[in-house]
Write a structure and sequence with these properties.
two-stranded antiparallel ribbon, 18-stranded antiparallel beta barrel, 2 helices, mainly beta
């Protein structure tokens, strides 16, 4: 039987005991608090210590939000009420919103290495329309109207063949796909096994695997992804199957003209010591004798205070070797860390190419697979400006050492200094280069970028390059 008086007495005792425990803990902690205050006086400037001064919450009206070019429906990263949307017969709730956004890039650049001498003004526009239906379902369409399918851009060629104005425009749809999750579209269906927890995408989409070294292309494909697969000794396994049937550019950034088909299986496991990726791709070309197999294994982890990534990639031309597909291997390593008492980044990256490794699919805009080595190896993706040390891996080895310096506390200015080199394993040829990149954010939409490099190559005259780029994000 419920006893009201006993209930009141127990409540009073419980509150009194709680108050005594809090008072005792505060009394015991007081000497340590005083010691901490005394050991960190006003003259101390330990950057690792949290400040004692509270930071007030920002008001909604004080947060500046760079809105998209077009915004219909719920505000992108905005504040306020969310549209309730509508329910589908499947039980899913959709809240349609449309956003138009993109990037305009314009650069004046000159590149002189070996027999290549080019100076130009080049322009690129990437524009997208995103129909967001829910947190997991959307339709994305994209265009690049200022360059054609061969990677030639609209602009003015100051030096190099051909000279003069070039209007390389295109109405081609570069991106057009739908993606979603079966479990989110059909939430009313009971699935205790989790089999329906499948993500999918279908249409013309950008595929980027092994940091773009295995695949970096836009192609017509369908993909299925299964997340949260339990594995012994690990927290998660994600596996993805992809079938591509059109718009596949091969290792040289060109289509074969015979509609090859791409089959890929991609796996990522989160283990206590590292994140492991294991991928396999088969490309079947029905009429061009360039069938090929491609595979890769990589590990990303922390070694002490160092971020470390190691990759092994391989390829095998199953028929005739050509510019589309060839046989070879690529070993790649990336190490980076933050120097003590700074927010900067130091990195050391290196590679060894054995024979002629080929990627399964590469867009003509992205260059070869070595772009991740550093700014001296990376393609800029705009105009005919090349990489100082190239980015193909055939029969060669090389490395880059760089330092990324954040100039101001708001991280709106940064500069990268880098030195690097590469050498051939077949002929007596080596190159060494030094370069720098400066970036400055201006307002909420503009970025200024300056690049410069110098390169020395055996048996050739010294080379150099420089560029000034303005980028508008909208």
């Amino acid at each position: 039987m419920f006893n009201f008086h006993r209930f009141v007495a127990n409540t009073i005792c419980l509150r009194a005991a709680t108050a005594l425990m809090i008072a005792a803990s505060m009394t015991a902690a007081a000497p340590f608090a005083r010691a901490a205050d005394e050991s960190h006086g006003e003259g101390d400037h330990d950057e690792s210590r949290f400040s004692d001064k509270p930071i007030p919450l920002l008001k909604t009206e004080d947060v500046l939000r760079p809105a998209p070019l077009i915004e219909i429906g719920n505000k992108f990263l905005g504040a306020g009420n969310v549209d309730p949307g509508f329910n589908l017969p499947t039980g899913a709730n959709w809240q349609p919103s449309f956003y138009a956004f993109g990037t305009y890039r314009s650069a004046i650049q000159t590149f002189r290495v070996g027999d290549e001498a080019r100076s130009e003004w080049a322009n690129r526009l990437d524009i997208f329309g995103n129909l967001q239906l829910s947190g997991t379902e959307r339709v994305l369409i994209g265009f690049r109207p200022l360059n054609n399918e061969d990677g030639e851009f609209t602009g003015y060629n100051i030096e190099g063949d051909p000279e003069g104005w070039e209007a390389n425009t295109s109405g081609r749809i570069s991106t057009f796909f739908f993606e979603g999750n079966f479990e989110e579209i059909f939430p009313d269906l009971q699935d205790p096994t989790g089999v329906r927890d499948l993500g999918f995408s279908v249409g013309r989409q950008s595929l980027f695997f092994q940091d773009g070294m295995l695949i970096n292309d836009e192609l017509d494909a369908v993909g299925l992804t299964k997340n949260n697969i339990p594995i012994p000794g690990g927290s998660n396994l994600r596996t993805t199957f992809i079938f591509g049937w059109n718009e596949i550019s091969r290792d040289n950034g060109r289509e074969t003209g015979s509609d090859p088909q791409l089959y890929g299986l991609f796996n990522q496991a989160d283990l206590p010591f590292a994140t492991i990726n294991g991928d396999f791709v088969y490309v079947h070309d029905p009429s061009n004798s360039s069938d090929s197999a491609h595979w890769a294994v990589s590990s990303t982890s922390r070694i002490g205070l160092t971020n470390a990534t190691f990759r092994y990639l391989g390829s095998e031309a199953l028929e005739d070797e050509s510019a589309f597909a060839s046989s070879g291997h690529l070993l790649f390593a990336q190490l980076s860390w933050t120097p003590h008492h700074t927010h900067d980044i130091m990195y050391v990256n290196g590679f060894v190419g054995i024979d002629e490794f080929s990627s399964a699919a590469r867009s003509p805009l992205v260059g070869g697979p070595l772009g991740n080595t550093g700014i001296l190896f990376a393609a800029v993706g705009l105009g005919r400006y090349g990489a100082a040390l190239g980015n193909t891996a055939d029969n060669s080895y090389g490395a880059a050492i760089g330092y990324q310096l954040f100039i101001d506390p708001d991280n709106r200015q940064q500069i990268i200094f880098e030195v690097g080199g590469r050498a051939s394993t077949e002929i007596d040829a080596s190159s060494f280069a030094a370069g720098a990149r400066y970036q400055q954010a201006m307002g909420q939409h503009w970025v200024l970028q300056l690049d410069i490099f110098g390169v020395a190559t055996e048996h050739e005259d010294p080379g150099m390059g420089g560029r000034v780029e303005i980028r508008y994000e909208f």
